[in-house]
Amino acid sequence: MPAPLRIAILASGRGSNFAALLAARERGELPVDFVLVASDKADAPVLRLAQSAGVPTTVLDPRQYAERRAYDVALFDRIGASKPDLLVLAGFMRIIDGDALKPWAGRMINIHPSLLPKYRGLHTHRRALKAGDLEHGASVHYVTAELDGGPVIAQITFPIEADDDENTLAARLLPMEHQLLPAVVELIAAGRLALSEEGIRLDGQILRKPLRWQDGQLAP
Asked: Record-annotated residues binding (6R)-10-formyltetrahydrofolate (predicted)?
């Protein structure tokens, strides 16, 4: 039996997506070990969640660094010391320097609350409503130096209702993120999904479009 996938988490807030990954592991759905939770905020609730689960944590304050690049390199040095196979960004609210990302190419994923390539960056719910979109959702993608611009692995969608506002969209989307992210990590942990020079491969075949969550599973 292969060794469990070693995962490091990078988060700035409450850590609900990390909690979803922990729950999936406890259900026996994820053959993974969480080797580190790293944050840029000492008061981030995700750190308390990690500590209660027995997962090591580290915090690095960006205010101690004059330049973003110097901070990012130092942070990723700490993360690298835990020897993860995969780094999951789960609500990390900073843009990462491209040089710091290079050693992690194909080994870092992020969950983003929009149907990429729509609405990279912040305020995705507001922008979807302003545009008059009929549907909204979340995407899991590989991280590159381009903000929210890496290859999209999978998406989950739902219809926008006439009376929706930013808060209702966010509330409806969050539990869907908690389904989508563990499903993608499960594929990676099983060795079924990886990023190659030609693109994302699932079971050896190039994905021509993102996987979609439907009927409780990911499908092409």
From this structure: 68, 93-96, 110
Q: What letter represents residue 131's amino acid?
A: A
Q: 5-219: what fold?
A: Rossmann fold (3.40.50)
Return d(Cα 132, Cα 128) in angstroms, integer: 6
Q: Each residue of 74-131: pLDDT tens digit? A: 999 999 999 999 999 999 999 999 989 999 999 999 999 999 999 999 999 999 999 9
Whether residue 94 is annotated as binding a ligand: the answer is yes
Is there a binding annotation on residue 82? no
Q: Is-catalytic flag, 125?
A: no
Q: Is 95 annotated as a binding residue?
A: yes
Q: What are the residue ranges spanned by the domains of the chain? A: 5-219
Strand residue runs (E) in 85-172: 86-89, 108-112, 135-142, 152-159
Give the DSSP H/E element, type plus range, for residue 173: helix 166-189
Query: What is d(CA 175, CA 177) in angstroms, rounded to the nearest whole number?
Result: 5
Provide the b/e sequence for 197-216 (b: ≥16 CB within 10 Å): eeebebeeeebeebbbbeee
Gap between the Cα atoms of 215 and 220, Å rounded: 12
- Is 69 marked within a binding site? no
Active-site option among 112, 125, 136, 178: 112
Q: Which of 150, 33, 125 is nearest to 84 (CA)?
A: 33
DSSP state of 44: -
